[in-house]
Amino acid sequence: MGPAYTLHKVLSWSANNWSTHPIAQSLAVYCNNNTTWMAVASDINIEYRRIDKIVIDSNSVTQVVATDNWIIKITPYKLYVAHQSDTALILNRSDTHAMSATTRGEVQYVNIEVKPTRTGAETFNIRLNALDFKDLQDKVSRPITVLQNVTFHRTLLDRFIDTFKQQVSENPYYETVQELEQCVGCMQVPSNVKLNKLCGNVSEERGPDACVNCFCRPMWCIECMAKWFASRQDENAPETWLSSKCTCPVCRARFCLLDVCYVRLLNQ
């Protein structure tokens, strides 16, 4: 019965130049001025062949493609399409997982609802690694609305900065009575971190990679220090950043993450 049903289905779809096929019906929604679904398919094919499209793997069997005018979701059993000119994009959810199949650290995903306003067009959802969000945002012509209660890391640096802050918050405070000046990196906020050797770096104590004391006064905010730390690491191995070392931006004293301390003023 299975093969017979399949043959019947294919034959019924092939009638009228495949106009009853599910993909043809999805494309027919975007027909203008008495054009056929094949004209829409031709437009999509032309844009798909261009090298400036972006292709994002949602998982092992699902792809999201963004061309100049179209957003396409490709699944094993269905093809979803939306024309950007009359489509709303709403980022409505994010979720974080402790481990990733491709990296050693956590991975964050975002869910974007694609809502065509054209009559008959189907709404669908695309799920992306949060680090792919900027690529999609830069390609599509429509703004992506991020709901107010949704937070996520748009770049690898954003994710590292948050993790850096969390790790530093677990280190002891550096107490001082010295008045804090503006961060010399951004000049926007008061400096709030000090490099203070605390790590038990015994095995490398006399080696060139050993952490050493930094005698600079507090000059940096946590945000700028995290950015400086990240800028000195191997961009091709982000999983090693937290366990790596860096040098003070001023005196070049070598330090690790355990040596970065928040500053606490004793007179407050």
UniProtKB/TrEMBL annotation:
<protein>
    <submittedName>
        <fullName>E3 ubiquitin-protein ligase TM129</fullName>
    </submittedName>
</protein>
<dbReference type="GO" id="GO:0005783">
    <property type="term" value="C:endoplasmic reticulum"/>
</dbReference>
<dbReference type="Pfam" id="PF10272">
    <property type="entry name" value="Tmpp129"/>
</dbReference>
<dbReference type="GO" id="GO:0061630">
    <property type="term" value="F:ubiquitin protein ligase activity"/>
</dbReference>
<keyword id="KW-0812">Transmembrane</keyword>
<dbReference type="GO" id="GO:0016567">
    <property type="term" value="P:protein ubiquitination"/>
</dbReference>
<keyword id="KW-1133">Transmembrane helix</keyword>
<dbReference type="InterPro" id="IPR018801">
    <property type="entry name" value="TM129"/>
</dbReference>
<keyword id="KW-0472">Membrane</keyword>
<dbReference type="GO" id="GO:0016020">
    <property type="term" value="C:membrane"/>
</dbReference>
<comment type="similarity">
    <text>Belongs to the TMEM129 family.</text>
</comment>
